[in-house]
Each structure stands twice: as C-alpha cells, then as structure tokens.
Protein: Thymidylate kinase
Amino acid sequence: MAAKRGALIVLEGVDKAGKTTQCKMLVQALQQSGYPAEMMRFPDRSTTIGKLISAYLEKKSELEDHTVHLLFSANRWEMVPEMKRKLEQGTTLVVDRYAFSGAAFTSAKPGFSLDWCTRSDVGLPKPDVVLFLQLSPAEAASRGRYGEERYEDAAFQSAVLDRFRQLMDDSSVNWKVVDASGSVDDVHKDIALKSLDAIHAAQTQPLGEL
Ligand code: DGP
Structure:
C-alpha cells in the first residue's frame, strides 16, 4: 500500500492574529507526536520572485497592482512541485498564508473583484483545512502598532477582513474559524485539535485542487 500522504494545513487571518507563532507551535507539536511536519510561508521571500515581492512590501519598489498580484500567485505556483513531493512522502505542511491572503489583500484595493483575484490560483493544491484566526480590528489594534510595510494600516486591514469573510462563504473550502483572542496556549490547543482531524481525513482522501 502507498504511504499515507501528509495534510496541507493553511493558517490565514489578518495581520497580528498570531499566524506565524501558531504555525511554529503546531509544527513542533506535530513532530513531537510523531507526525512528520514542516512549515512553509507565503510570500516565500527567498526566491527570485519572492525578492521582487519583498522589495515591494518594504516600499523599496513600486509595482502595478495586477502585476504584483500575479507575482504573489506565481510565488505560490513555483513551490507546488516541492509541496506535492513532500505531501506525497507523508509530510504534513503547515502553511503561513496561501491563496486566500492573495485574494483578500488584492481585492481590498479599489477596482479588484474577488472573482478576478481568485483566478490565478485556480488549480493550486487545495488545503485539507484552512484555519482562520479570527481577531477583531479593535483586538488587533490592542496588540500594538502596525509595522512600516505596505498594507500595514488599520483601514486596509479592516477591508481585508471583509474580503476574508466573503471568501469563507465558499463551502468547497474546509474553513475552520479559530478564536485568536485567547492565550497563545489556548489558541494552540484549538488549532492542534482541528489539525489532527485534517491529518486523519487526508489519509483517506486524495489531494484536491483549488
Ligand atoms: P507576511 O510576511 O505574512 O507578513 O506577509 C506580508 C504581507 O503581504 C502581508 O501584509 C500580507 C500580504 N500578502 C500575503 N500574500 C499576499 C498575496 O498573495 N497578495 C497580496 N496582495 N498581498 C499578500
């Protein structure tokens, strides 16, 4: 019998929701429980495309909005062969942001429909679960000031949250909402339970496509 595949677990949410901390904790907990697991993050700023994105986010360069959207998408596509290889080998991937950030952030800009924004990611490996770390704009603000990068302001983040809510209406994606307002440990416990469900389900289902 073929080895059991790993699960594709994505964490999404607005800035300051705690995604990166929770991704790291989840990978560690899974490994300690004997599940092979690795973290990935998008944008992956280490590739040639990722470096263009990073300069744009740091406001060191300007790029036309459609162009940068497609670069973010290309940055996901370029990692697909590696993702598939790892999943097939049985490694669970815990991913910090994915196509949903792509659609939510670009469609929060004027003149972009959610429909157009989702198209360039059609066909990407479909997550077994998307854990949405929910945090109100007021709670996000109470976690301190936003940084200096592009998109890091309260009005834009609240538009992004609206777009995420619209994306969560898509029942073809396995969205699970996580209350991110609790303690780091409580949030972790919730995420770990939901992730184990996804890992078990993935063992009997083929990897889908967005
Ligand atoms: P992070 O490294 O997780 O802080 O993400 C960098 C920023 O880029 C963050 O503000 C969210 C935004 N972002 C992530 N993915 C995409 C995407 O695909 N498209 C756009 N427009 N923005 C994205």
Q: What stands out?
A: The pocket of 2'-deoxyguanosine-5'-monophosphate is lined by residues 15, 42-43, 57, 69, 72, 97, 101-102, 105-106, 151 (CB under 6 Å).
